[in-house]
Every structure is written in C-alpha cells, then in structure tokens.
C-alpha cells in the first residue's frame, strides 16, 4: 500500500517532537519533510535526541524546500505545529503555492489560528490581525470525539486545556445534567509552556510547586465556550482557573456545575459511559483519573461524582498528545480514511 506523505511545520517545538514520534509509529504515513526556519540544515536528532534511533540522518528543511515539496505531492498531509500568529499565513502561503501546481494537501493545524469561525473572534483574543482570514471557512475546529462528520478539507485541533475541559463538560451540557454555568479548574505540566525557557518552566521555580495563573481570564476560555456550544447546542458560561503543576506532561481538570435534577454518582458515570460509548480513546471509570495513567498516550480518562445537587467531572489527558499531536493525528486518520486509532493505541508509559 502506498503511504501518505506527511510534512511537519514548526519542527523544533515539543509538539512537533511528538508529531515526529507518532508519525514514525504510523504504518500508513511517510515523513517527507520538517520545516524549521530557525535551524534549517540541522539534524532533527540534535533537537530531539530521543528520536535519533528513528531519524538519525533527517535534517530540518527551510521554507523554500518545504514549499516545493508541498507543491510536488498530489495528496499530502500537513501537520502544523507553528506558533500562533505565524501558522495562518504560513499555511495559506503553502496551500496557495501547492494549489497553483495542482497539488491538494490537507492541513491539520495545532495552533490557535484557525480555531475561531471569524477573524474578529480570533483578533479579540490574540490582539492582532488574523494572518489569512479568507482561509477560515476551510477549517473545522472540534475535539474528534465531539464531531462525527467533517464538512471542510482542513481541521484545527483545540488547545490542550480546551480539549480536557470540553471532554469533561460537553456531556454535562448536551445531556442537560447541569445548569449552563460551569466552573473549571485545570493543572498543566510544564511542557504546555513550550520549549523556550521562562519563569513558568524553570525547574527550581516549578519543582514541588503549584500556582494559578490568568484566573478567569485565560485565553482558552472563549475557545472553550464557542466549541462547547458547537458540540452541545448550549450557550454556557465557563469560569476557568488554570494552574501550573510540578510535572512535565499532562493536564488534570475538574469541571463543576449545579445539577438540573437530583443525581448521584452511579447515574452520572453511567451517563458519561453512554455518551462516550464507541469512542476508543475515552475511558470512563469509577476511580479518580491520574495523570500518570495517560502521560505519553492519546487516551483521556474521565470520572465524576455527584451528591444530588452538584456534579463534578474529572478528566486527565497528556497535553502534548491528546491535547495536541495525538489529537491532530486522530484528525489526520479521519481525513485520509484510515481507522481513527491507527498509530495511536500505545498505552501510557506509567510512572513517568
């Protein structure tokens, strides 16, 4: 069987590293090029030493090389891990060049640039003009488990916090289990801050510590609100408080709401199991989910509790995998007609 060619953009970041790892394990994909404007010509293994056994000779390519490559492949997948504010124009330029040569790549973007349905909604959050507003209608943004049918050629994957909060909250809203006013608290690992060192990722500051940041004003909140409405049909209010945790990989979120009718824990868990029935990457269990049980995998573990008047749902994911690279690979599988689980079924490493 002929393999589908893949191009990765934004090649030196943590998410790109996980994309490269997942592509290597996918039996129907063939990596053709990795873009890095900052390190063209450098070995990929220099940035990702753990990938040296898989890509010992692979080098980062410059934009000109990647543009020619995208234009020469009739059907290719472009996985973009380029930064917010950069991805939109980069993708637009690549698609324009490819289409001029008769090529028709399909894009899965992991940045925020195509998550909103209008330029104004994007600009209100990110405080700069959208790089390619004409492309926005060509993208759909959703958690894979919340959308059965795609109607666009390209996909934008939600943010990592958004993914976890949506997995926990959309069942509550769609099943009308809670009032549409939800309170979410989330804890993320240091890899969520990206590869460039900063106060939030410096080990002596982050180790053995946990603290809130941007409470009730995090930039993922408008994204969560919009995607929750699209998935559930309910306009909800999200009060979100993110935290930085002392671990590298993973996100733990707790979503709470006032029950619309008296409900206890067994009924809540049954409702969650039924909602995610047939979704291979979602596990609903009686026991509380642990970050270590999903770290390094594309799985989401969910549990919950209800005392009659209040419902709490807990969800854990790996921020780099299910919240970024793995979720993008799910979309790639669907866009190209592969089984959704292909290349993604490896369990968490445990004891990370």
Brief summary of the model shown:
It contains ten helices and 13 strands. It has 352 residues and is an alpha/beta fold.
Q: Total number of β-strand segments? A: 13
Average pLDDT, all residues: 96
Helix share bin: 25-40%
Full CATH superfamily name of the largest domain: Dihydrodipicolinate Reductase, domain 2
Derived from helix and strand composition plus strand pairing, the structural class reads: alpha/beta
Report the CATH architecture of the largest domain.
2-Layer Sandwich
Number of helices: 10
CATH topology of the largest domain: Dihydrodipicolinate Reductase, domain 2
- Which percent range describes the beta-strand content? 15-25%
- Taken in chain order, the helices and strands follow as EHEHHEHEHEEHEHEHEEHEEEH
Biggest β-sheet: count, sense, barrel? 7 strands, mixed
Name the CATH class of the largest domain: Alpha Beta
Instruction: Give the overall shape.
Output: globular
